[in-house]
Amino acid sequence: MIDPDGELAAFWRERHLCTITTIRPDGTPHVVPVGATLDVAAGIVRVITSGESAKARRIRAAGPDGVPAAICQVDGRRWTTIEGTAVLRDDADSVRLAEERYAERYRTPRVNPKRVVLEISIRRVLGTVTM
């Protein structure tokens, strides 16, 4: 779906903040800023967060089927939105991998024993960056 050597993947290696959008039980969007990493080979976007955050609680409550989610990144006229299904991972290997990827793109994350990973399986990609 995404060319690992293309402009879209390169855009996602640059340091930009993103937003994640999930839907609250009342149907309204919950949009918050996050750091996100694209794993082209796995077909997922990862977000590290506290297990106590609203987004993590909502996704955990959904269970293994997950919830619809969108990750958006913008830089001037370049933007992409990646849509898919978000699931929560809290096992040590998943958290460690997500922290390593986050450190590559942003910086080493602060210590957080309550950290979890939101994994969004890529279903659709929209944007102005060549795909």
UniProtKB/TrEMBL annotation:
Highest taxon of the lineage: Bacteria
Keyword Oxidoreductase appears in the UniProt entry: yes
Domain Pyridoxamine 5'-phosphate oxidase N-terminal: residue ranges: 6-126
Keyword Oxidoreductase in annotation: yes
InterPro entries xrefs: F420-binding_dom_put, F420H2_bilvrd_red/Heme_oxyg, Pyridox_Oxase_N, Split_barrel_FMN-bd
Key words, A-Z: Oxidoreductase
NCBIfam families listed in its UniProt record: Rv1155_F420
Protein name: Nitrilase/cyanide hydratase and apolipoprotein N-acyltransferase
Organism of provenance: Kibdelosporangium persicum
Lineage: Bacteria, Bacillati, Actinomycetota, Actinomycetes, Pseudonocardiales
